[in-house]
Amino acid sequence: MAPDRWRNRLSFGLGTIGRDMSAALVSLYLVYYLTEVVNISQATLVGVTVIIVVMRIFDALNDPVMGVVVDNTRSRWGKFKPWIAVGAVLWAVSTLILFVDTGLRGTGFLLVFAVAYLMWGISYTINDISFYGMLPSLSRNLKEREAIGVVARIAANVGLFSVVVGVIPITNQLTALLGSEEKAWFVFAVILVSLMLAFQSLTLIFTRQRVATPTARTPLRELFAVITRNDQLLVVTAAMLLFMAGYTATTSLGIYYFKYVYGDEGMYPIFALILGVAQLTGLAIFPLVSARLTRRQIHGVASAMCAAGLAVFALAGSSMALIAVAGVLLFMGQAFIQLLMLLFIADCVEYGEWKLGRRNESITFALQPFIYKASNALGTGLVGIALVVSGISRAQSAADLTASGVVSFKVVMMVVPMVLVIISWVVLRRWYTLDEKRYAGIVSDLRTREGLS
User: What is d(CA 14, CA 16) in angstroms, rounded to the nearest whole number?
Assistant: First the structure.
């Protein structure tokens, strides 16, 4: 039995490595690539920011529809794997399109960018909903589900931070080798999407579903009711949307911070390595912490760590030691929260089944990419605001930034996210009631119903 459990933990978990590599490339560095490598104008940057925000929101609103499609799929490979494969291939293609310098500028560039970015968002949706929608079907046991989630998030963060740490040195080396920054970033994208497809293949080949797929299908007309009547899912969505919007803004602005505020871009990979170790440590010790604290308590501690980290970051000045302390607090706390988000949404599957009488894994997990995309849209909006109001969009180096520009940048990068973290904690604390005891009672009741049917 143990080897069978570990097969699912590893094959599902390792499938996230390449996914998060490719996701990090676009969500954290696409704007950097466009402003620092392609050198788009400030007017084009404003257009890109608007396109990303609008396309993300539009695509996010369509995520639940994809959830219905996946939940209603019946095939010899199950309902999840066909869409995981389709989404991964389309995701790879659209990522490469985003990192091709077509030579277009102005309106022509914006039109091509809008189409490519929309394609990227849709393909991400297809893969993400089907991939994470599979998680609740791997086990109903709370601790086993937690174990699968821990492995998945550790693997995902290995992928994420390998990109964060390596993006500058690797693209610099490729630039020296290829003689062009544009070619270097494109080759880097090719490497990442190739790894994504390879690791996704592990999930497709080896992961096995353990909870049976219900025969009943969900009509599209009932989609709205499935989501809105799951009150706990709505609470988790609201809380995590607020948190992730601030987190996305902070992480996306990190590379600009070291180049234009701290004044040493070479420190960014070192800082990223510290963050990666902190986040992986947080994920690794989560089972030990959860053995002693409830999930509600863990969320409170993690939120406090994130808020404290952002406060220290804002006051750190030129002290790399304080910046490192801030990063450890923020990213260890974020590690706890990102895993809790995954587990909270997974638990809402059983809650929805218990309350509504129908099991909808993919519709429920459609709210995860919705959170990611909507928060990314808001975070990207904050990034655009920070670059414009600080003067970075017009600057060539740190010397070009005024003192007021630095303050404006820090407010958007650190103070606004800190406020969002606090509001997120309040929302979850006040309205989320699906704790461990209540979940156990729901699962017991569901098993009783199944035995009677």
Answer: 5
